[in-house]
Design brief:
Chain B: It holds the Pfam family BPD_transp_2. Chain B: Keywords: Cell membrane, Membrane, Transmembrane, Transmembrane helix. Chain B: This is ABC transporter permease. Chain B: It is found in: Cell membrane. Chain B: Its main location: membrane. The structure holds two protein chains of two kinds. By secondary structure, chain A is α/β, with parallel strands linked by helices. Chain A has three domains: 16-92 and 170-249, Rossmann fold, CATH 3.40.50; 266-340 and 425-511, P-loop containing nucleotide triphosphate hydrolases (Rossmann fold, 3-Layer(aba) Sandwich); 347-424, no CATH class. In chain A, 32% of the residues lie in helices and 25% in strands. Chain A has 18 helices and 25 strands. In chain A, the strands form six sheets. In chain A, strands 7-10-11-4-12-13 form a six-stranded mixed β-sheet, sandwiched between helices. Chain A has a six-stranded mixed β-sheet with strand order 19-22-23-16-24-25, sandwiched between helices. In chain A, strands 1, 2, 3, 5 and 6 form a five-stranded antiparallel β-sheet that branches. In chain A, strand 20 and strand 21 (376-377) form a beta hairpin. The longest helix of chain A has 16 residues, at 185-200. Chain A is globular and about 70 Å long. Chain B is mostly helical. Chain B has one domain: ABC transporter involved in vitamin B12 uptake, BtuC (Orthogonal Bundle). Chain B contains 17 helices and four strands. In chain B, the strands form two sheets. Chain B has a two-stranded antiparallel ribbon. A two-stranded antiparallel ribbon of chain B has the order 2-3. The chains are: A alpha/beta, B mainly alpha. The interface between A and B is medium-sized, with 39 and 30 residues.
Chain lengths: 511, 333
């Protein structure tokens, strides 16, 4: 593997990769049905679909992580049965996982070469690996010290290390599973360039994304999955993002963002003044009105999440917080919850839900006091609350005794929302409300958020997706390097304006 | 990718790259030496220091193995009982007289001890990996098994090496010196050097740290996670066997209480040495340093009058907690 990133020569005119009647069942449930599509050398082929449509399963089949129940997979026209990811890699099919799969305690170079270390006899050759890793990362347009410990890098940089690691394998088909979910616009731009590069070298790219605009920009062809079936494969040039959304959802998606009338003059509910979170946020001041939806935009690492965590008492912070004009202190989350402020973490799986527990347990966890009778938890009342939440928040679950971890990402987010609403909060802070969520569920989440505001609650939305902030917020504050650097309201709200503030550079330079 | 490239000016002064958690144990050792010198003027004498380090040999050698197990994300509570078990079987074999020549008998005994140690380690490894049992529980079980078997073999009494020829031949392994340096000290450094080489320089060592850092990542990288884990327990077993080989000539006898609580001392040495109990990081030389610290604290308490030596356990307990607090505050920087 010393000759990185050289695609093996492509053969004749058979498609590089082709599936025929590919199906996959888990137990009695068929999650993929008769998928037939092909990938040609030198194309970017996007796969889109709602959560649970079967995209990830399809990718896992192609990369050898799963074996199909029926149907076949052909490489260069020849039917193959992949025995595992290593087998797929040897055939030139590599997968960039959605989650960051790196060992946090090892260095960049050690991670890049993990499992395929360069060695001379008994020992590993660190110098060669450091050099190789530095070059591989530089090829992606970044400059990262190969000796840096991965756990100390930003998420975006870890993502790059992960991509560098994958591209080091001689590849013919590179599968990207939502690579831009945690990237900022500028990093996304750079990644799209990398993808164009891979295509230019004659390899194929399979690209999964929820960002339809991005798909439109980069893809040559688009395949749409819905409920485990292939709905259509089209030329990207023939599709507009709205057409893609229609195909994904199977109905008209006229409007993603619900109407929301901002109240003209509103009383201030929350006032934050000169609030700092050591190392992350400096002297942040802002006001939040009753029934207002306030957006926080900025690059990943701008300190938005940390500022919110500081305000609700998850991190030590300094400054003044006034609630209805009264100065308050939140030394811990318990205090802010009692004051009616809830915070929904961006890390649903890690910090929001107990994935190994059932839905009822998760739902009532934060408000458990209301479900206790005597010394016992009242199971009946818990079950009733779950029924109500399932209806109210449209949590789609086949059975009520599922574990939270068995729900799709979108339904997990709805469950988390339902859990926090149990507390009947006056102020709701939602961090990345729709990360990794399909378009149909997104629409629902936006409706919930607007409904909350309509009920007189105040909402803060932290998001890296500018269109959604513009779509639902009354006002957007932009953070850069730990400071609030500007505010956009009303007709001023545009991606350009936000990018200029978030990066501190003009858009042309940024791109 | 403008903002990535210019993320921060990369300050790469050599001193900033040093991992403070890795240095802390050595600083602590140095401070202890100074403290000891104040407590008693005999403390810094060559004789006393060589004596202290020699006595730390058992724990130091076992702790090298424990560093492998712990940095791969495992834990082995059975090492203390394993010492008693391996040493007892080895002595019984040497007493059996199946080989006439004392020298050959000794050599065979050494080989057997290593074999039994490796086998015990393999058992621990297979129970945790193939049996999918938490290492804490698995080795808690084998800890009882090894201890119980030893008690049964000795019928509650002692097992003593009977052949005086073998004893004479074997004695220098603990009491001998090479160029004035006691053999156990040489063994400590040889084992540590081998351990450091394997952990830092070989592919296997890299895989150990990867498995401890994030098992899923290791698995997705094509690393045979179970095999890597199992081998760490075998390494632990071999280290226990080496410690036994030094232990037998010292007293020439074992009993049901041999190696009691040694597992906790070994884990203490590893943790004080800067290795994270959650896995992913391993400091072999720090571990050795940790083992020295434990023994030196006891020695200082013995030589000085201001703390009763009966408080040794309490002091060692406090050391673990202080070490963890220091580690955490250093890691936050």
């Amino acid at each position: 593997m010393s000759n990185p990133a050289t695609p093996a020569p492509t053969a004749s005119d058979a498609p590089l990769l082709e599936t025929v009647g590919l199906s996959k069942s888990f137990g009695p449930v068929e999650v993929l049905k008769d998928i037939g599509f092909d990938v040609r050398a030198g194309e970017v082929h996007a796969i889109i679909g709602e959560n649970g449509a079967g995209k990830s399963t399809l990718m896992k089949l192609l990369a050898g992580h799963l074996q199909p129940s029926r149907g076949e997979l052909r490489i260069d026209g020849e039917t193959v049965a992949l025995t595992g990811p290593v087998d797929a890699e040897q055939r030139g099919i590599v997968l960039v996982h959605q989650e960051i799969l790196l060992a946090p305690d090892l260095t960049v170079a050690q991670n890049v070469y993990l499992g395929r270390e360069i060695g001379n006899g008994l020992t590993v050759d660190d110098r060669a690996m450091n050099e190789g890793a530095r070059k591989a990362v530089r090829d992606l347009g970044a400059d990262i010290d190969p000796k840096a410990v991965v756990g100390r890098l930003s998420i975006a940089r870890r993502q790059l290390v992960q991509i560098a690691r994958v591209l080091l394998v001689p590849h013919r088909v590179v599968i990207f599973d939502e690579p831009t979910a945690s990237l900022t616009p500028i990093e996304t731009e750079a990644l799209l360039k990398v993808i164009a590069d891979i295509r230019a070298k004659g390899a194929a790219v399979l690209y999964i994304s929820h960002r339809l605009q991005e798909v439109k920009e980069i893809a040559d062809r688009v395949t749409v999955l819905r409920d485990g079936k292939l709905v259509a494969t089209r030329q990207a040039a023939d599709l507009q993002p709205l057409d893609m959304a229609k195909l994904m959802v199977g109905r008209d998606v006229a409007k993603l963002y619900p109407d929301h009338q901002a109240p003209a003059d509103r009383e201030t509910i929350l006032e934050v003044e000169d609030f700092s979170v050591p190392f992350y946020a400096r002297n942040a001041s802002f006001k939040l009105g009753k029934g207002e939806i306030l957006g926080f935009a900025g690059l990943v690492g701008a300190g938005r999440t940390e500022l919110m965590e500081g305000i609700v008492g998850l991190r030590p912070g300094r400054g003044t917080i006034r609630l209805n004009g009264e100065p308050v202190r939140f030394p811990n989350v318990d205090a802010s919850l009692k004051a009616g402020i809830v915070y929904l973490s961006e890390d649903r799986k890690g910090k929001g839900l107990l994935l190994a527990k059932d839905l009822g347990t998760n739902l009532t966890l934060a408000a458990l006091g209301r479900f206790v009778r005597g010394l016992q938890i009242d199971r009946d009342r818990e079950a009733a609350a779950l029924d109500k939440a399932i209806g109210e928040f449209d949590i789609r679950t086949g059975r009520k005794d599922l574990l939270a971890g068995q729900l799709s990402g979108g339904n997990q987010q709805k469950l988390l929302l339902a859990k926090m609403m149990m507390l009947d909060p006056g102020i709701v802070i939602i961090d990345e409300p729709t990360r990794g969520i399909d378009i149909g569920t997104k629409e629902q989440i936006y409706k919930f958020i607007v409904k909350l505001a309509g009920e007189g609650r105040s909402v803060i939305v932290v998001s890296s997706e500018m269109p959604e902030l513009i779509g639902i917020c009354d006002r957007i504050l932009v953070m850069r390097s730990g400071s609030i650097v500007g505010e956009v309201t009303g007709d001023e709200m545009s991606e350009d304006k936000i990018v200029v503030l978030a990066t501190g550079v003009k858009t042309q330079e940024a791109a | 990718m403008t903002d990535l490239a210019a993320d921060k000016p990369r300050a790469r002064r050599s001193w900033r790259n040093i991992d403070l958690t890795a240095v802390a144990p050595f600083v602590a050792l140095a401070l202890l030496l100074v403290l000891g010198a104040f407590a008693n003027s005999n403390f810094l004498s060559i004789d006393n220091l060589l004596n202290v380090i020699t006595r730390s040999a058992f724990i130091a050698i076992i702790a090298v193995g424990a560093t492998f197990v712990i940095s791969s994300g495992g834990l082995d509570l059975s090492v203390g009982s394993m010492v008693a078990f391996v040493a007892s079987l080895t002595i019984m074999f040497m007493n059996s007289g199946v080989i006439a020549s004392p020298a050959m008998m000794l050599a065979a005994g050494v080989a057997l001890a290593l074999l039994i140690g490796a086998a015990c380690g393999l058992a621990n490894g297979l129970i945790t990996t193939m049996g999918r049992i938490e290492p804490f529980i698995a080795t808690l079980g084998t800890m009882g098994i090894f201890r119980g078997l030893t008690t049964w073999l000795s019928q509650g009494g002692a097992i003593t090496l009977r052949s005086s020829e073998i004893q004479t031949l074997y004695r220098p392994a603990y009491f001998g010196t090479v160029l004035g340096v006691p053999v156990p000290i040489i063994v400590i450094f040889v084992i540590a050097a081998i351990g450091a080489f394997v952990l830092y320089r070989t592919r296997y060592g890299r895989h150990v740290l990867a498995v401890g850092s994030n098992e899923d990542v290791a698995r997705y990288s094509g690393i045979p996670v179970d095999r890597v884990r199992t081998i760490t327990y075998v390494i632990q077993g071999l280290c226990v066997a080496v410690a036994c080989l030094l232990y037998i000539p010292r007293l020439g006898s074992t009993s049901a209480t041999t190696g009691l609580m040694w597992e906790l001392q070994a884990i203490t040495a590893v943790v004080v040495g800067g290795t994270a109990l959650r896995g992913g990081v391993g400091w072999i030389w720090g571990t050795i340093c940790g083992a020295f610290i434990l023994e030196i604290v006891g020695n200082i308490m013995l030589l000085s009058n201001f703390v009763s030596e009966y408080l040794l356990g309490a002091i060692q307990g406090a050391i673990i907690i202080i070490a963890m607090l220091v580690q955490r505050s250093l890691a936050r920087r």
